Structure formats: structure tokens, C-alpha cells
Model the fold of this input.
Amino acid sequence: MAKKAKITVHPSFAIGEISDELFSAFLEPIGTMVNGTMYNPKHPTADAQGFRTDVINALKATGLPAVRLPGGNFVSAWQWKDSIGPKSERKVHLDPAWYQVIPNDVGHDEYLQWAEKIGAKSLYTVNMGTGRMQDAMDCVEYTNFPGGTYWSDLRIKNGHEKPYGVKTWYLGNEMDGPWQLGSWDKDPRAYGVMVNETSKAMKWIDASIKTGVCGSSAPFMEHFPDWDEAALDVCYDTVDYLSVHHYHSAPPGDTKALLGGALYYEDFINTLTAMCDYVQSKHRSPKQMMISFDEYGGMQRPNSPLHPGWGRYNMARSHYRFNPDRPYLFHDPDKMPDRRFPGGDLTQMLSMASIQLALLRHADRVKIGCMTGGLGALCASNHDNVWRSASHYAFMQMLTYAKGTSMRTAVESETYDMPGYAIDDTSQYVGKNGVPYVDSACAWDKKAGRLAVFVINRNDAEDYALSLDVTGFGSGVAAAPVEARIAEVVEPAWPFGAAPAKGKDAKASSAAKAESFAKLSGFTSCTMYEISGDPEARSEFGNDEIFAPSVNKRAKLADGIVTAHIKPLSLSLIVLE
Done:
């Protein structure tokens, strides 16, 4: 007999409104992310700019809201002014961050125009490492000013008459990290002063933009959260976001530690919000600082040898490496090697989905989330083709159903203890006791009259008899589950069902649902989607539906209670309407 688990959602316990940019992606020219996937002039589908249209069409169909670009560590030595104009006149530079040659075939304009082609907003990172205030001011003028000045007229001359209208700007990347070119790890206050002046100047050029200041690159940093507070304290009044990153690692095969990584993200977010609120109180400011989690990931990584007793030298030893035998590489877009994470698609998908659920549970303060590898999650690719991995389907569920208001989920389930471990000298995790096997988050789209409950089973051996209690929304009459259809990757929109109503029908439907929920008359239909399967299986071109969500027809709704079973290592989505 399956063990039991229970989730309760009540309309009185809202967390906050879900931002349209919470489920976005990150792009940086590392390996094949740009050269090979985004850009390959020799590809059969390449357009006039050398962009792969198979990738463009696949991403456009997903409705991805935004992409952070052009990096990343790469940005801290990138000179955007050398990447515009005729390609024959662009300068070739070294990228010391990743030991690569940057020919600038893909430059400032190309990044922004590619984002336009996939239908996503650009979240732009300026160079605050080797670059300074004037570079950032000129970049905003070139990008967003209508015309009549040197930089805006140069944009028009280079072929883009209308301003790009980029609204979100990050002032540097991981500036607290000793690995960063032009790092400010030794002087957070000076970095904060520079951000304050730069943000102020950029907003005087375009008052419609929002800016982000770098916070800590990981909760492991010895200076966290003191560094963040010192930097934010001198720029609080001119910025809108605290920009943070984290990558969770677990030893290969330790699925519980990998999927339990969401707890470390939540600890990180809780500390950051407390720190931001403390700075807010010091400034007597009515503005509440929001968080941009614009790089995140989860991965399996073997433990490295430890060096006890070296203390802070371990950070320097890890990043101040000067290897005369390490060559600079030129990444030929037409020589794209296959790169795959160890293990199957399912485990990687669950790892990333668990982080997304953590962000959703903090939607009141986390307003931007950019998955590293998010473009590949939505559109897996190799040199020749594109396809859908397990991560595509999970990401699409977030984009489709995680809308409206984030709601608290009270979870009762079997738990496990997660011993502490050290991946290496600088990535060490404290143990966690009483980790629920069942992980959950919820979105209530009042306009659509829809409640979406996401459920992950972290247990790799046991299924659970799940009871979902939504009686607080009222009791309705159960209807037969709705069959789902999975759209082709190149087809735009509504990937998990029939296309939504349009025109007068849509208005009438929306009004009826809004009136129903104003009275909290309850839900009348329930559909449950499951993503599960062989943890070692991999999707491939021509075989990319092995992890397509299936409808669990055994899920039933009666008197405000959903009863269902959730499989081991699975992501379930319960949609109530």
C-alpha cells in the first residue's frame, strides 16, 4: 500500500504576484551556447544574419518572456563598442574569463535582434569590470535613445532605426567574485558608489529603465551577506533589483541531495530579503528591494579533494590560476561538439524544476529568474537538429500555468535527512533534517479561474497516495478529467490543451470565471499531468516525446478534495478549474 501525502491550499494564504519574467533564461558565449546553437552561418536553416532559424522557431513557440545577455563572466572584459558596425571592421578580442577568442561576429546589435526574433525581452548586462560609467551611459544612449545624438544616430546607421527599448539593465556580473575581471570583492562600498552614480546617469538618459546591483555569487562566499549589505547601502535609492546567482551541486547518484537543493536556495533568498529590508529601514525608504535570480542551476558533480586548514586561501587557490599551458580557443560555429549532462533527462529536469518551484514560493520578492541552460532546456540541439528534452515539458508547464498569484502550500509527507557534504573547498553544504519527499508550489490565476498545483516526488523508490485539499475555495461538482494534447515544438502556443477562446467568447468566459471565483464556489474540473519515466533515459531528435506529460485519469475531484497517486521521481501538475 502506498504511503500517504497531503497538500493543502487555501485562498487566504497568498504569497505574492507572479512576475512575467520569473521563468526566463540566460545566454552567454561559452562553448556552443552562441557559436553553434544560436549562430551558425553554414547551417541549412541559417538566416541572413547567420542565426539558426530552427532554434529561433522552436524558442519563439515557447513564449519565453525574457533572456539575460550577453553574459556572464564574459561581460566583464567585453567592449561592446568594438562589436557594432560592419563585421569586417569589428575588433577581435581575447576573453580571459573563459580563455576564448571573441571575433564579435555576434555583437551588441545581433544579441538584441536575436532576442527580438525569438520574441523575448532582453535583460542586458553592462561591463562594470574593465568598463566604467561612460561606457554604460553610451550603451543606453545607443540602445534606447530615439535619435539625434552620436550614439543613437550610429544605431540608426547600423540598420536599426527604432530604439531597442531594453528596460532591465544589470550593472556588472558577479562583482563580488575573485574570479571576476575587475572584481570588487575587496571593496564592496566602492562598487556600490560606482553603481549608484552609473544607475543615476543611465536613468537620466532613459527614465523608463530599471537597474540591478550585484549581490553575492553564492551563499558559500565568506563575505556573504556583509558584502551585499555594504554595496546595497550606498546605491539603494537608485537601483531596483539585487542580482544574485547560485549553482547547486550534488554528488553523482545522490538524488536526494540534488533535489533537496531547493532548500539551500530558499535559505539564500530568506537571508537576502532580510538584508534588503534591513537596508531599506536604514534608508527610511518606502521602496522594497526586489530580487533578480538571473543565473541558477542544479547539477551532479563528483567531490573534489579537500584542503582542510587553508581557510580563505582555498578561494584564491581555486580562482587565481595562471597556467601557461592553457590555450585560447576559437569556437567554430560549424564544429559544434555534443555536450550532455551526466545521467538522464529526468533527473536534470527535476533538479531545475525544484529550483523553479522555490522561486515560485518566493514570488513576492523574486521577480526575475533566469535559468542557466534555460535555452537548451526549452530547445535541445546539436549541430544538425533541435528537439524537446524532459526539461522542455516542465519549463513549458511553468510558462503556461505559473501565472497570477503564488499561493502557500502546506505539505504533509514522509521526510528524510540529508547529511552535509562538501563538493570542494568552496562549495560545502550543511545537513538538513526532515526534508519532505513531496515538494510543492501553487499558482492561482484568478482571471482564468484556474488553480495550478505543482508537485515533485523526490523519492526514487516510493509512490505516494496524494490528497490535495482545496476545500477553502468552496466545494464544486467533479467533472471528467480533460484530455491533454501536446503541441509540436514549432507550433506557437497552448502546449497542453486546446487553444484559448478569443474575442467575445474569451471575454464572456473570463467574466463568468471571475464572477464564480468572487463567490468562491469551488472547482468543478480537475486535470492531472505527469512527467516520469526511466531516470537514465535521454530524449533525442526523432524520439523527443518519451517525457511528454501524460494525463493521470485516476485523479479525481470530489467535495474540494483531489485524490491521486504520484510516481517516484516525478513532476505532477494538477490543474483545477
User: Anything to note?
Assistant: The first helix runs from residue 53 to 62. Residues 3-9+407-576 form a domain with the Immunoglobulin-like fold (CATH 2.60.40.1180). Residues 14 and 479 are 26 Å apart (CA to CA).
